[in-house]
Amino acid sequence: MSRPRVCSLAFALVLLVPLLGTRFAAGQESTPATPIGPFTLPIAPDPALCTLPARGIEEYQAFVGTPEATGLPPVEITAGTPADQTTIDGVITTLVQVFACLNAGDYLRLGGAYTDAGFVEDSGSNGLTQEVIDFIASPPQAVPIEDRDVLYGVFAVQVLADGRVAAIMQRGKDGRGGVTLMLFAEEDARWLIDLWVDEPFLIRPDFRAPESSEATPAA
To answer: Most buried in the list 1, 118, 144, 204, measured by CB within 10 Å?
Structure first.
């Protein structure tokens, strides 16, 4: 359903121009680790925060020749319940790492932000070419500070009926990069991207009574 960040990568390959952004400074450990949060938004994460576990290039290579998905219908979900602060912080931490990897130009580590299902859906819908695969496999080149991509805001974080978490992500300097629906699934105490929706989306209200409620006896 999504046009993943590999699409941004292909765009960069053609134009040789990275994504938008501002600046943010933070340290990292010598081995991949979860960055220390919570984070204050907006933020243009420093490439040093790109500490996701990298996927192998062969995982991307498997999708070469897969046709790009086009004309996909809008995505519709039913609203869930508001997430607690720990969940919200976990979702934001994952997105900070995603933007850090975009700013690092490290697309192998970017793949580490996805569940396996999310990675297959994302990469399998992009019509990857060998040229793009070669670009992914090349040594990462960090985006200049003035051009770094900005995670502007994360809103309406909610737990869905199937246990996944939905959030609205707004990106770009001054928030002008548009909004996107993100679905996350929890794996090993991390919230990983299970669906990145670039198509139009609709979050329908859920008017059902909470399961814990009981009918009031008639007078």
So the answer is: 118
181 neighbors 24 (Cβ within 8 angstroms): no
Q: Could you give phi then psi for residue 155, rounded to 5 degrees?
A: -130, 160
Residues 6 or more apart from 3 whose CB is under 8 A from it? 125, 126, 198
Q: Spell out the domain ranges in the chain.
A: 5-204
Whether residue 7 has pLDDT greater than 60: no
Of 47, 141, 29, 139, which is closest to residue 96 (Cα–Cα)? 47
pLDDT in tens, 172-199: 999 999 999 999 999 999 999 999 998 8
Element holding 201 (H helix, E strand): strand 201-204
**What does the pLDDT look like over 136-155, one tens digit per residue?**
999 999 999 999 999 999 99
Phi, psi of 197 (to 5 degrees): -100, 115
Give the C-alpha separation, 89 to 142, whole Å. Answer: 26
Chain mean position to CA 98: 6
Q: Cα(120)–Cα(129) distance, rounded to whole angstroms?
A: 15
| Contact in structure between 141 and 147 (CB atoms under 8 Å) | no
Confidence bin at 58 (pLDDT 50/70/90): very high
pLDDT number for residue 165:
98
